[in-house]
Write a structure and sequence with these properties.
Layout (H helix, E strand, L loop, with lengths): L5 E5 L3 H18 E2 L8 E5 L1 H10 L4 H8 L19 H24 L3 H8 L14 H11 L14 E8 L4 E5 L9 H8 L9 E3 L2 E5 L9 H4 L5 E5 L23 H27 L4 E5 L6 H5 L5 H21 L1 H9 L4 E2 L1 H5 L15 H26 L1
Parallel strand pairs: 1-3, 1-8, 3-4, 8-9
Antiparallel strand pairs: 2-10, 4-5, 4-7, 6-7
Helix pairs in contact: 1-2, 1-3, 1-11, 2-7, 4-5, 6-7
Length: 398
């Protein structure tokens, strides 16, 4: 078994989780000396974390991800969360085509033996006409494919310089599948990411070969064992989804989550399930891999910003990413004393000067280096601005 030194595991959490992870990754990258997020030996990604893990394995830096996903005005091909809510039209059409036959059979069964009980039973097959998911995940895969087609990048697991594992769940068997591992490394990376992020009910299952796959988070939250099995000795993990712990000061008029209706209730339920499974997994990793150092980053449970954030708002995305960046910096500074001996075993250090620099914000990336298209447009504008007075002068003389 090959012995790898460093690994990175990114859990899921939808657009919210991805935005948080980008801010956290930037804070980690600039605060740890001797460590590079695009130079890890093994990457593991689950659900939305698979999207970022695939980018890092393809040497897309956290700062570049910030331009692509957050400060999109600086990117030639920015990612907008709106692509995640395009209706799965093909799935709707496929199901609608089946509806007349299902309705006819339901009516036939009912009138063959009419009764109230029989009528409800006859309606049950109509559920087959419901779409397997509301939104189309294909644009996500297409976007990642475009990024992978850039020079120096690849959509092939086997051509990556470092190991990349994308976790998904086989729908019909509930089996955990690790794309990128032997036997599953011929699948395009972009397709594997689409499968890992196919949250049931939201996105239809993704067909790869003869099997259908759904969100990898159904089985594992972080799945750090995929990296630890490879011999990783220092594993950094980010889990952006934790249950919210509301203030318990009863003297204050703090509204319960129930006042927000169904959405916050479901969110809290989902987060609680993920969090409890995460804690069990972390204890098992420490027991099974005692020689490995595992450093986990998570939001504070009291973090209201993370729970109620609107990720589809442009300003909201920027604010949340900045929040994640600053919270991770504070987290690193508070843990610096305990992290130093752990990192020293791997020839790394915490840069206290960077963490204590209160002037650091993500807004400094807003004026970053423009892409090729942006450069071309600016050059054209400069030429036209010089040409305009010349044309005016010629026209006046004529």
């Amino acid at each position: 078994m090959a012995k790898f030194r460093t690994g990175l595991a990114l859990a899921g959490g939808g657009p919210l989780g991805a935005i948080y992870e980008i801010g956290a990754l930037i804070a980690i990258e600039e605060s740890l000396r001797g460590f590079s997020l695009t130079g890890c030996d093994v990457y593991v990604g689950v659900s939305s974390g698979a999207f970022l893990a695939a980018g890092l394995a393809n040497r897309i830096t956290p700062q570049e991800m910030y331009h692509l996903f957050i400060e999109s005005s600086q990117a030639d091909d920015p990612f907008e969360p709106e692509v995640l809510v395009r209706f799965a039209r093909r799935e709707y059409v496929r199901r609608l085509i089946r509806a007349p036959r299902l309705i006819a059979k339901a009516l036939s069964d009912h009138f063959a033996a009419p009764s109230n009980h029989r009528f409800l039973e006859a309606l049950q097959p109509l559920s087959k006409a419901l779409p397997a998911g509301l939104f189309d995940s294909a644009p996500l895969s297409a976007y990642l494919k475009r990024l992978s087609d850039a020079p120096g990048r690849t959509d092939d697991f086997r051509k990556l310089k470092h190991k990349l594992y994308i976790i998904a769940t086989a729908l019909d068997t509930a089996e955990l599948v690790t794309f990128g591992a032997e036997g599953y490394d011929s699948v395009p990376i972009s397709r594997a990411v689409e499968a890992s992020a196919a949250l049931p009910g939201v996105f239809p299952p993704v067909k790869i070969g003869e099997r259908y796959y759904v969100d990898g988070a159904l089985q594992k939250t972080l799945h750090a064992s995929a990296a630890l099995r490879e011999g990783v000795r220092l594993l950094l993990g980010i889990n952006p989804i934790v249950p919210y712990k509301a203030p318990q000061d009863h003297s204050a008029k703090t509204a319960s989550l129930v006042e927000g209706g169904l959405v916050p209730i479901l969110s809290q339920t989902f987060r609680s399930l993920i969090y409890s499974r995460m804690k069990i997994g972390m204890e098992r990793y420490r027991h099974e891999y005692p020689d490995a150092d595992i450093v986990l980053f998570e939001p504070a449970r009291e973090d209201r910003e993370m729970f109620f954030a609107n990720v589809f708002s442009y300003s909201g995305r920027k604010r949340l990413c900045e929040h994640a960046y600053q919270q991770t910096r504070a987290h690193l500074l508070a843990r610096a004393a305990s992290l130093e001996p752990v990192l020293a075993r791997h020839e790394m250090t915490v840069d206290l000067a960077v963490l204590k620099d209160t002037s650091r914000t993500l807004t400094r990336f807003s004026g970053g280096k423009a892409g090729p298209l942006s450069k071309a447009i600016k050059s054209l504008e400069a030429v036209l601005s010089r040409l305009e007075p010349l044309l005016a002068s010629v026209q006046k003389r004529a």
